[in-house]
Amino acid sequence: MNVELLTRDALAAFAASRRQAFEAELKTLVEIPSVSSDPERAGDLRRCAEAAVDLFRRHGGEAGILETAGNPIVHGRLDGDPAWPVITVYNHLDVQPANEPEWTTEPFAMGVDGDTYRGRGTTDDKGPALSAFFGALAAREAGVPLNIRFIWELEEEIGSPSFRGGLEAHRERLATDAVVVSDTVWLTRGRPSTPAGLRGLQGFRLTLETARHDLHSGVVGGAARNPLAELMSVVAAMVDGHTGKVRIPHFYRKVVKPGRKELKEWEKSGFSVETFMRDHEVLGLRTEHPLKVMKRIWGRPTLEVHGVVGGYTGPGIKSSVPPRAEVKLSCRLVPDMDGPSTLDLIRRWLAANYPDVQLHEEHGLAPFKGHTTGRYAEAVKEAYAFAFGAPCAFTREGGSIGAVGTLEEVLGCEVYFLGLSLPSHGYHAPNENFDWEQASGGMAAFAHYFRQVSAF
User: Fold this and answer.
1) What's the pTM value of the predicted model, to 2 decimals?
2) Are residues 144 and 108 in the same domain?
């Protein structure tokens, strides 16, 4: 191993020499609209997988497509001696839709504005995936004695419904000593953070039908039931819209609260309410106490309303009583909650109080309790400090990554996180972006991480 190629200066030079290649590869991936929630994009998802396979082969690696019952999995390999340890990097190449009117550029035509890359998927998760890949190339050039492999999924944004089956079908081929995930968000620029846990998710819809067609409000208004108004009252009975407190009895009974040691780690993380609001362009919060905000986004479950469907939504007012309505909701879950029992609790509460309202289950993801100690955790901390010159804080992630728990269960190894995205990058938002500072720093962080774990 040539350690001179793994110094900060050498890795900065490596990143600079590969910048043009990184940008070209990112452009290729971003301009494939791999929207997994859209059935009409199935061909684009396959095209994205094939482009990823070509990417590995162009850079001297091996890769193949692993078929599943749903979207394919790309498995890439930068292998050396079979006796060397094996580390696998997980990312996903599917993306959210990009139908928000706030986009100022074409979402599936990558724009370059100085050091900023714009387009859907630049930060979630194609940019970080490529940063990890180029970090692996740097480690390979330096002769790091490690077999580095990659799992690039194409269903993460829809809850990874076929991922477990795909892993189980190819378990022997995917065997690894540990997995590192690069699909998480820091607190802010210059302050690396990595999750010690992820919230889960359980989506559902409520529907109510009270008539066969639109009704004239002047003829039936006051006597006919209004499904929109009734569902609004149901939601108000479920959750306090001002405080966010869920009113369904026993909703919090399984919640494992963060311990004193973990809370102290959060307090030392450098979290700033002002920065949080600026990065997310939030106009107001339910509390502005830093620790209370962190508890709410990382350590407490939620019940959120995402959309209301029903009635007339065109210009002006149509004075009718709608025949049916729908509300789209989800719960974020924390350890030791789970989706099925949470839905069962809600279903029983509805049956007792609003028997006409129907609950329809949507996809769910289990919460994940992460790891903060041990040699792999220390390697993550050292990689961040080496590449970005700042200590890493173990926090939690408010979002969900369905594949994480599945990777641990099926492959029988621990999963750690080495994310690179920032709140200002616009995860799931219009005008999503990534930047060269995080990309090049990520290459150095991963190269250093690979060097560290090669000795395990």
Assistant:
1) 0.89
2) yes
